[in-house]
Amino acid sequence: MANVSVYNMQGAQAGTIELNDAVFGVEVNEHLVKMAVVNHLAAMRQGTQKAKTRNEVSGGGKKPWRQKGTGHARQGSTRAAQWVGGGMIFAPVPRDYSFKLNKKEKQLALKSALTSRVLEDKMIVLDELKLDEVKTKKFVEVLNNLHVEKALVVLDSEDKNVILSARNVENVKTVSASTVNVYDILKYDAFVATKAAVKAIEEVYA
Question: Are 40 and 140 contained in the same domain?
């Protein structure tokens, strides 16, 4: 099992923590990690794009000229795609872009992402993260003490003081241990988690 240093809010080392290899020490499956990211982004798409086909645009009920004898190409409607104001061929319609990933695939992708943070020394464990009040300045001080800027901060529970203090900090996102996902793990340069959050993640995925 890998040992990772534990830091306090002042940035000083306050011990070590032993990580569960079943979660933080698996073989990284890059294909599943990519699929999990694509799945996450696809689920976020609204899919509300829409354009009208020739059947949906107004007008064009009358044949513009007779079939033969005019010298023009034959036309059946002024709402065909080649006419100004006509409909679009193969027009996009509202659709759902999401697709299913199996439960085991999701779990292995998450474990792979967590393992990659450990292997790349981008995982920082805090003994605790507590703020007495909502104060963005104090939260930024904690990040500066840890020498991180773009970070995903994982909490074991919803601490309103921490969440509200971090809300306006650029390139920082706070999530609970139960809602952490592959996309967020890879998006941020540092994975900052409390000891309690690490234990909560191990309990769910070990």
Answer: yes
